[in-house]
Design a protein that fits this description.
five-stranded mixed β-sheet; globular; binds pterin cytosine dinucleotide; 17 helices; alpha+beta
């Protein structure tokens, strides 16, 4: 069962259009919530006139003065400035385009749009700051009373002035890991209904149902018991979905009005109001010997937290932790600072802090190789941690579990035909071809299950002898209904169709941490496996009574899906018969086990990517010709699904390298807030990738699995950016910011030619 390329069982209903999303959840009598959002980035609210709303039949309007929810505090994480709280509705100041000033309730959605337009807000504009480095300077303050825009920082206590003293060669650079919109195809939404028993049910498009239940219980004063969160099918989250100010206000309104309330945002609303990702400025210095040995590295991260500090403010911690990458660098220093600006708040987006680390160190390695006049793949190879170095702790403090970085690099170079590509590049350069070939290499490592959380697996045998798994992990596109069923089926000796996976309903699943940081398989999957094993142990006891033998002599024959006495393969007591017998005796509950699995440490997936781009040196047009991705996430449960994860992840990573940027003008107006202007890549812009698997198990869980959900996003971006710069190297170009699109490349060429 394990390692089989089984098709995703959930795809049958998705492909037939039978998925059930929040929007499909019918709740009779529900009112529609529409948020009135600020069209200016920074302003004092001089007045709000809501009187016009009365002209829309049945419409109700609420402003800050009406909503008794207090404020949405930053996450309770040490080091974050907890005085920079976000009011649920702005009362005196708005701090970004999209900040909420009022909410209207109407009988239908169209009336909501009309009513929202009738809320007249008088804004006194204030100067805006949209760039984190300008935010750091502090000329414009978002919270003047605090005297600073810094919302979190980890400064270098005692910088080593001699860090690069013994180095022959020192290179430095600066790179902007630009702001991105997560763009789930299903935007956010929820439906809230207060039951007659006083319990609140919230159908929510989220990645973390149990965490959301807890937080909502706190805000509404209902406790965990008073709230049920149901996450039905979710059309992508990419790290950015969870409980938000909107989805706390909606249930509050349901309680206030005594009517169910629903909200589904539009694409444009999603683009400005859902947390953005990345948005960091990275400055690096790297030094080493003339023969290419890296000796020291320094990284500084200036993170844009957006208008209200959320998880984005603390992500540079992961960037600093992972700053060493795959390289054995003896001395590393880093410092990070997060700053508020008049922009959409930032948070995790696929990779969350680790792409930034890979982007910085890989750019530094390229510059180092160029300075030495050595091949960038060769310089990388000279500095990789060797396979016998694991487990190890890097100079930046990360404890890597297992790896074989050299093999990943070799596989990627071989698959790409690296030597032949370089040869083609030489020929083209010599012949003065105006379509320049660029080749980029990246070797990366990332961290999954970074917070080392416990997870639940709860396995139950049904009266029919099939199995139900209740998992605390959540699948918003990753295919857990298939892979988690495989893990349980493998242990029980049942076909995968005989295992049903239940997730996302806090009344059905007793606890859970949800899904982020690509941790689900290694903790939720491991817990499911453990629970299935306990069920087998309990089943052996029941089977021993049926087969009149000692439990110690009962074995499970996984091939045949039943139990027999050791040494005598017949008779076999199938799960179906065992379950029927247990049910007849009222002992079916004995065939259920809930287990919690908690690993001792995070795991560190890794890989190597090679990209080949063609750049038209007359127009600047960039075409990605080929991308080879070698990704190693330990033992793979289902290679088909893991490869699918890599395909999607690489698309996001290439999107950052070549296409996407959520940009603002100087006054904080978004330059694009729809797919018309935001260059979200589609299949039409992308070639098919060469995805190559590799498996180096982790010792940290019984599956040997690490996470694969974010790998493609982390490894691909630096390879593609590097390929673009490589194409332009003969012109003396040393760097092109991302997205390295036609315009940027053309400008870089113009500047170089000038
Ligand atoms: N898998 C496997 N063998 C492994 C590891 C994983 O077969 N060694 C399989 C898993 O069983 C699962 C899938 O690959 O079906 C991803 O598993 P895992 O790497 O454990 O990651 P999670 O399930 O925890 O997913 C989270 C991760 C994150 S953090 C983001 S963001 C993300 C992502 O995965 N967002 C996604 N993948 C996404 N895919 C889709 N379609 N939509 C999103 O929003």
């Amino acid at each position: 069962m394990m390692g089989q390329r089984i098709l995703r069982v959930e795809d049958d209903r998705f492909l037939r259009g039978e998925g059930l999303y929040v929007e499909n959840q019918e709740v009779p009598g529900a009112l529609h919530a529409t948020f009135v959002r600020s069209p200016v980035a920074h302003a004092r609210i001089a007045g709000i006139d809501t009187s016009g709303v009365a002209s829309v039949p049945g419409a109700q309007v609420f402003t800050a003065a009406d909503v008794e929810l207090g404020a949405f505090p930053p996450p309770p994480i040490p080091g974050i400035n907890d005085k920079m709280v976000r009011p649920f509705l702005a009362s005196d100041v708005v701090r970004f385009v999209g900040d909420i000033v009022a909410v209207v309730l109407t009988e239908d959605r169209a009336a909501g749009a009309d009513a929202a337009e009738l809320v007249l807000v008088d804004y006194d504009p204030l100067p805006a700051v949209v760039d984190p480095e300008a935010g750091l300077a502090g000329d414009v303050l978002l919270y003047p009373e605090l005297g600073t825009n810094v919302c979190a920082s980890h400064p270098l206590e005692a910088p080593d002035r001699a860090l690069f003293e013994s180095c022959d060669v020192v290179v430095s650079g600066r790179l902007v890991s630009q702001r991105l919109a997560a763009c789930p195809l299903e935007a956010r939404g929820c439906v809230a209904e207060l039951g007659e028993d006083g319990r609140m049910t919230l159908w929510l498009s989220t990645q973390t149902p149990h965490l959301d239940r807890h937080v909502l219980g706190l805000f509404l004063g209902l406790g965990d018991e008073g709230v049920r969160v149901v996450a039905p099918d979710v059309g992508g989250g990419f790290g950015a979905k969870g409980l938000s100010v909107e989805t706390v206000i909606v249930p509050w309104l349901a309680r206030k009005t005594g009517r169910p309330v629903r909200w589904t945002e539009s694409r444009s609303e999603n683009m400005v109001a859902m947390q953005h990702g990345r948005a960091a400025v990275l400055e690096f210095t790297l030094g080493g010997s003339r023969d290419g040995e890296v000796q020291a590295y320094r990284l500084r991260v200036v993170q844009d937290a957006g208008a209200y500090p959320g998880l984005g403010a603390i992500l540079p911690g992961f960037t600093a932790l992972m700053s060493s990458g795959v390289y054995a660098i003896p001395k590393i220093e880093s410092d990070t600072v997060s700053v508020v600006t008049n922009t959409t708040p930032t948070g995790p987006f696929r990779g969350a802090g680790r792409p930034e680390a890979a982007q910085a160190i890989e750019r530094a390695m390229d510059l180092f190789a160029a300075e030495l006049g050595l091949d960038p793949a060769e310089v990388r190879r000279r500095n990789l941690y060797p396979p016998d170095a694991f487990p190890l702790t890097t100079a930046s403090g990360a404890g890597y579990d297992s790896g074989d970085y050299g093999r990943a690099l070799d596989l990627a170079l071989e698959t790409a035909g690296y030597e032949a590509l370089r040869e083609e590049q030489r020929r083209r350069r010599e012949s003065g071809d105006t379509r320049a070939l660029g080749i980029g290499v990246s070797v990366y490592v990332e961290i999954t299950n970074g917070l080392v959380e416990p997870e639940l697996g709860d396995v139950e045998i049904t009266p029919e002898g099939e199995a139900v798994l209740r998992t605390g992990s959540f699948s918003h596109g990753q295919g857990h209904e298939t892979t988690f069923a495989m893990i349980v089926a493998d242990r029980l000796g049942l076909p995968v169709e005989a295992v049903r996976v239940i997730k996302g309903d806090t009344d059905e699943v007793s606890q859970g941490t949800g899904t982020y940081g690509s941790k689900s398989t290694q903790i939720g999957g491991a817990a499911a496996r453990q629970a299935a094993e306990v069920v087998v142990e309990r089943a052996r006891v029941l089977a021993s009574e049926q087969l009149e033998a000692s439990a110690d002599d009962i074995v499970l024959d996984a091939e045949r899906g039943g139990f027999h006495v050791v040494g005598s393969p017949t008779p076999v007591l199938a799960w179906k018969e065992l379950a029927a017998a247990a049910a007849a005796e009222g002992r079916l509950a004995e065939l259920r086990a809930a287990e919690i699995f908690k690993a001792d440490a995070p795991t560190f997936p890794f890989g190597a990517h090679v990209a080949a781009v063609e750049v038209d040196t007359e127009t600047g047009e960039v075409e990605l010709r080929r991308l080879v991705a070698v990704d190693d996430a330990g033992t793979i449960v289902n290679p088909l699904i893991a490869e699918g994860q890599v395909h999607g992840g690489v698309a996001a990573g290439v999107g950052q390298a070549l296409f996407e940027e959520f940009a603002y003008d100087e006054e904080g107006n978004p330059l694009a807030a729809s797919f018309l202007g935001y260059a979200f890549a589609s299949a039409a812009e992308l070639p098919s990738w060469d995805v190559v698997g590799m498996e180096t198990p982790t010792p940290l869980n019984a599956l040997g699995a690490k996470g694969i959900g974010e790998s493609g996003t982390i490894g691909s971006t630096p390879a593609v950016q590097s390929a673009v710069v490589d194409a332009l190297a003969p012109f003396g170009v040393r760097h092109v910011e991302m997205p390295a699109n036609g315009e940027r490349v053309w400008r870089a060429l113009q500047a170089a030619r000038a």
